[in-house]
Amino acid sequence: MTFILSEDQEMLRDTAVSFTRDELPVKHLRELRDAGKNGVDPEARQKLAELGFFGVLIPEEYDGVEMSMVAFGQVMEAQGRTLASTPLLQTACIGASAILLGGTEAQKKEWLPKIAAGEVTTALALDETSHHNPAGVATEAERDGQGYTLNGAKKYVQDGHHADVFIVVARTFGEAGDTHGLTLFLVPRDAKGLTVQSLNTVDSHGAAHLTLDGVHVDDSHVLGAADKGMDVLEPVLDRGRIALAAEMLGSSLAAFEMTHEYMQTRKQFGQLIGSFQALQHRAARMFTDLELTTSCIAAALAAVDSQRNDLAELASLAKARASETVHLVSNETVQLHGGIGMTDDHDSGFYMKRARVQEAMLGSASFHRDRYARLNGY
Amino acid sequence: MPFDAPSDPDAFREEVRAWLEKNCPDSMRTPMPEDEVVWGGRREKFKNPDSKVWLERMAEQGWTAPTWPKAYGGGGLTREQAKILEQEMARIHARTPLFSFGLWMFGPALIEFGNEEQKKRFLPDIVHGKTRWCQGYSEPGAGSDLAGLQTKCEDKGDHYLINGQKVWTSYANEADWIFCLVRTDNTVKHEGISFILFDMESDGVETRPIKLISGSSPFCETFFSDVKVPKDQLVGEVNGGWKIAKRLLQFERSSISASGFGSARGTGILELDEYAKMHVGTDGDGKLLDGDLRGRIADHQMYAKAFSLTVQRSQEQAKAGQEVGHTASIIKYAAAKMNQDKFELMVEALGTEALGWEGEGFDKGAKMTTRGWLRSKGNSIEGGTSEINLNVVSKRVLGLRDHQ
Ligand SMILES: Cc1cc2nc3c(=O)[nH]c(=O)nc-3n(C[C@H](O)[C@H](O)[C@H](O)COP(=O)(O)OP(=O)(O)OC[C@H]3O[C@@H](n4cnc5c(N)ncnc54)[C@H](O)[C@@H]3O)c2cc1C
Prior knowledge:
The structure holds two protein chains of two kinds. Chain A is an alpha+beta fold.
């Protein structure tokens, strides 16, 4: 396991950090919100593409820049720092990985260059209840001649409100709760029978509910082997979880830094509030937690690149620890800022709201604790 | 004779493996009962004779102090080689041959601050487990505020004269020598402290054991009245002891944390989840019956994993030349919390089985767990309290200032 970044990875991190700081600060998210844009910014997406961020995980033969998961994690961490609303997680990580790991050569040729160029965005349509549960899929895909007909509904699809193509997980066999019998489908946004209901979400990033009412797709839209969707889905989900955990670490670090600075400037009783020991200890505890979480994220990112066989365990570790840390830090951020932390004018609320979404996506802390225990046989 | 370690890691690993295979007695490849732990020193009794053989063989290689220079009896290994040795020992569940404050704290500090003559005189005996050291830091009035210590040390021309009292001196009654902080100047605080060494059999040294809540008596009140100490046993400069004291505390904090507070003592200790399964039972799917306990155990196990990854990360960063000086306090704080949480969960998993103290009617292992639980409460006190470590993090790492 290596915890030290290479030169290339460091360069990418620096680029990503300065880009999000200059172009996508929290202020930008606030502006999108106030303008009713629901977290969508096509111009920013184009700039992200120009910097190569959509192609970090895509091989050069499909026009990507072919770097590593460790590298991608740096981009996600940078985006987390400023709460930037971008399609990177859903498209550059989850979408690109699903096509890379499950796609045919034809599918790769068709989709990956477009993803790398920022021309299309994807969104994973998996969960059907308010809790993450990959095996719980009930949406049906029924065989119909040269393809399938899909019927069902998907809840809270992240980036679903603006995605060009959905990766829909449906059941071709068995019943909800079975881990086998799932199949992945590429479903274009304009498919007949697909309804996309845009959602205004607490974090101002937006999302969508989907309804699939007799949506027809032909065989060329099947991603990976029929009935064996879990084989592709699990590793793709783990990448997504790890990337999201990296984003959460970025958010936690930024919220902490903001709070740390406030502690050194705000005065009460003639003293800097940072000189009160009760608060110093809370800061030191947060810092310890951040250090531990940083190690988990680094280990999980590296585990993808070196294809370690404890990857699933490390993914759950990263996501669960990141969840706890981001809640701890974002809650303390509001508290330590006092009244100003409760105002919409201040950024701290944005971190706390986004933390809720980050935690619920791709498995909450309790989902991953349970998975971690199961993976360890108890 | 210690062999010259080959620089190729694979070749080194093979040699280590072969050597261990040949030299580690079978009975030293089993979990270590508390009463077979070897602390060395003049009074060591070696309950299991194999542990004497094992210590001698390892010490001969310098492998009780693998990274110390060979000139002082150490193994002269690089960090990577020491890591390999550690891994190979773990692979065969070899016991740690020697537990020693000399190895963990005093030795490393002496290597940095002692003069050549002192290193040659004291270090090899530590490696071989011949001298058992104790730490004379705390006093009744100076615990967290260590620099407030009062034990007086006067220059009497050809020797020093020491008067005062120490407290919480772990194993003072069994130690041969003490490394001790004393006051050589009353007019200043930190700059008036010196670091001195002396034999516990010197005239005027008295120890009285103190009983812990766990029932054992590992530490003592220690009294010094007119103890004469030869002048060449002062380490560093007169009044220059604070620097050494602080550095030694760093070694103490990292060694306590790295050892997981001695929970690594016996190898082959059950993982917490196994332990809980054994005592609580499982459902048809092999999941722990008590869902809430299961969740909390998972949470703890994840914390423990995050902890060990962090130790690993800081080692890699140190190797890559990055600044990691601050991590000793973070790691000490986290390790204490982790070990205490673990014992709480173990005791909880035991249920009423954990309520025994001594005598019949309770399992021996359960009674050890209960005492271990009580002992673990000291983890956030010994070697600097959690509060003090948080102070260090907030002041030195986060730069938060005191009241002006
Ligand atoms: C198992 C064990 C083994 C030990 N072995 C040794 C040994 O071998 N040699 C040796 O010299 N010492 C030893 N000690 C002593 C140990 O280092 C001290 O107990 C420790 O430094 C705390 O000092 P104290 O007990 O005087 O507590 P105090 O300093 O009186 O602290 C009491 C409480 O106040 C808190 N407190 C104090 N100052 C502050 C502050 N500035 N900010 C916030 N909180 C504060 C503390 O955290 C603690 O909670 C051992 C202790 C234990 C428990």
